[in-house]
Amino acid sequence: MSGSSSMPAGQAGARPAPAPEENPARELVNILVRGKWRVLIVFVLVTGVVAYGALRARPLYKAETSLMVRIGREYVYRPETGRSETGGRMPSLSEMVNSEVEILSSRDLAEQVVRELGVERLFPQLLELEPDPDIAVAKAVALFRKAASIRAVLESSVIKVGFEHEVPELAAEAVNRLLERFKDKHIEVFSEERAVRLAEQLVIRTEQLAKAELAVGDFKRLNGVFDLEQQRVLLLGRRERFDQSLQVAEAELAELRLRAVPGPTEPPDLPDLPPHLRPEMKDELLRQLYELELALRGFEPPVSDRLVEQASMRLLDLEVEESHLLRDYTPTNRKVLSVQTEIQRVRRFLEQAETRAGVFDQARQAERSARTQEMQEEIRRLTEEIELLVREEERLYRLEARQSIQALEIKRNDLLGRLAALDLEVRALDQQEQPLRRLERELLAAESAAQIYRERLEDARITEELDREKQISVRVIEKASRPVSPTGLPRNLVLAIGAFVGLVAGVGVAVLLDLFRAR
Fold this sequence. Notes:
This protein is mainly α. Among the domains are: 23-59 and 502-519, no CATH class; 241-442, no CATH class. 72% of the residues lie in helices and 5% in strands. It is built from 16 helices and four strands. The chain has a four-stranded antiparallel β-sheet with strand order 2-3-1-4. The longest helix has 135 residues, at 334-468.
């Protein structure tokens, strides 16, 4: 004690040294040693529960198969009425795959498989828990849909179908049965109209077509219509020809009316022709008149004869020569005087010749005058007869014109009547066009409907044949076979995991309890 009190003052006021730090591992070991019974109890409990569950649970076997979806007849667009001109929209591959997945996942399909395989085979424990068979089937369907796995493989047209069950053979059978019923369900979903109903509809459409054909035929027969457009063209062509003929007749009538009117200088009453005159004698009389006029002109020769003419020509030549000489010579020149003497002699000869010719002409003049008067009288007579023939010809011409006018008026009236009748026929055709078009449209619609039902009936028969053979667009790549190994983790691995979990749980419980106690 005394030793301690005798310590220096500086040492007496100093703080005590800190205790050394504890090791966490050593602390954990101390905790586990103190709570070893707790760890052991938790470990045994957890491991026992896991071991009990693993040993009691029966292993599940999963049978799988693969389906491939193809573009088939089911996805070809067919309109309900009429024909499709554009072909419709084709669904995409993913849409087709999703549609098939929905059919495979349907409750109806699962119920069919459950009823066929039997609840007592698939889930026998349900019959012990649920005596009502309908409720048992409903619960079995729910368990079946839960145990079934249906999924589409990404970026492909493949569908994976699987089913888990305690019995491997039953798992494979359930998958294969599901595929069989899937074919029936697929056909049911995509089935179209039955051939029997389409055949009945085709009979009805055929009867409607026959009635439409009969109605069109009766209408044409009763109204005299066979080819509306052709008949209209023919009628309009005939009307055009009649109209042209009418215009020609009108022009001829106008011309004949002008010819039928007598001239202003023509007497109202013409004398009849003498018995010796006939209209056909006109040309002969004209010929005789022409010949008489020529003969009359032949009786008017010149007064002077040939000698007088020669003397006159000689006199003219001498006078010309005299005029030329007088330009060059004087009047007293010998040449000029000689020519003047010759001129005087020719003049005396010409006077004597004219005197002799005058006495001879007087004798011929009397004869010519008598003949000329006789010919003029004949010419006058011929002229009067020709005038009578011309007037008679004009009278006959006007008479013929009047007769032609009557004939043309009859023809014109006939043409007017025909034109009026043609106008009535054209108007009647126009009035019959609307009902005929309506009947023809009904006939065309009946023909189209009958043809459409005929084609649909043929398609339905082909489809029914394919459905009977269960030919669908989904193909089974490989049927499900008996699985050889169960699904999930192996039993030994489950026990090991359970032991590990139990150990961890025990350690955790021990640590927690020690911490709570320390506080």
